[in-house]
Amino acid sequence: MTRIFVSGVAGFLGSHLADALLARGHEVIGCDNYIGGEFENIPKGVVFHIADCNDLDRMREIVKGCEIVYHCAATPYEGLSVFSPHTITQGIVTASTGMFSAAISRGVRRVITLSSMARYGTNDVPFVESMEPRPQDPYGIGKVCVEQMLANLASLHDFEHVICVPHNIIGPRQRHTDPFRNVASIFIHRMLLGKQPIIYGDGAQMRCFSFVDDVVDPLVAMAIADVDGEVINVGPDDGFISINGLAQVIANLIDFKLDPIYEPGRPAEVRLANCSANKARDLLDYHPRIKLEAGLMTMIDWIRPRIGKFEYHLPLEIVNDRTPRAWAQRLM
Question: Would you list the domain boundaries of the chain?
Fold first, then answer.
């Protein structure tokens, strides 16, 4: 049994990861500040602390005795980061340095941090790990900064580190009342409310979507695999689909008559974004099992009894003619 720390353990990915670690017999300690997490997500058996990774003294206290740290906590709001750069950067850059500093001071053996496909920006698709990052927004810039910070600290203080790059994760527990992120959850929630989905731009943007279980499996493997110092994409490299196509698939599953509401495109949104999974296949025996339609149906079944109001829970720091109306005017 290994003592493992999971930041953001009440969040979407962190809670699923904790489930998997507990099922394998590990002791799991975790924290969350509830910006994006929910109490009901925390798996039974987790030693839980309400704490923010920016609180260094608190993090040093609760990470003591842990051998491995998974840093899942973040403010993962790529689009919003254009209009709330201060809030998002605090939850990405300074929170990560708090987590890393606490872990290093307590002698943690390996730190696994969650980066983002936003690191690649306008590179040609499919994105591969050897590409020079070209982030296009404050969120992506912050994630690249975190990667560089972790690699630098690992070289200076002699601990192991891994950078996981998941993309467009979907599944139950994803915060469906959040108007700023999680396009599949937003589409499902609005359609279940009898409302048309809001699409930014022409909807021809292309993405691949990863079911959460298919991200958790390689994450668990990263704790013991020979991957020290590696950057590894995790997510399917087939099933490339447009945002329009995603809306249609969801509408078909719900039996909803689709007539999307189109709004102007969001600044800095990348047109084409999908990653090669070759490295994950080679190093982690990565083989995704859940197809898009099956994953979306699981989400529909989870959201249906939980439909409610969208919650504008984060501030808009910059409101101008480029700010999406759905955010500035709270149209969700």
Answer: 3-170+210-234, 183-207+238-272+290-328
What interhelical angle do 95-105 and 138-157 show, nearest 10? 10
pTM > 0.85: yes or no: yes
Q: Give the burial string for 190-218 (b: 16+ CB within 10 Å, else e).
A: bbbeeebbbbbeebebbbbbbbbbbbbbb
* Residue 277 exposed, middle or buried by CB count within 10 Å (0-12, 13-18, 19+): buried
Diameter over CA atoms, the chain = 57
Residue given tokens 């939980």 in the structure block: 306
Of 20, 98, 114, the C-alpha closest to 52 is 98
Burial of 309 (0-12, 13-18, 19+ CB in 10 A): exposed
The Cα 81–Cα 12 span in angstroms is: 20
Tens digit of each residue's pLDDT (9 = 90 or more) over 198-242: 999 999 999 999 999 999 999 999 999 999 999 999 999 988 999
Closest CA to 67 of 215, 223, 256: 223
Quick one: fold of 3-170+210-234?
Rossmann fold (3.40.50)
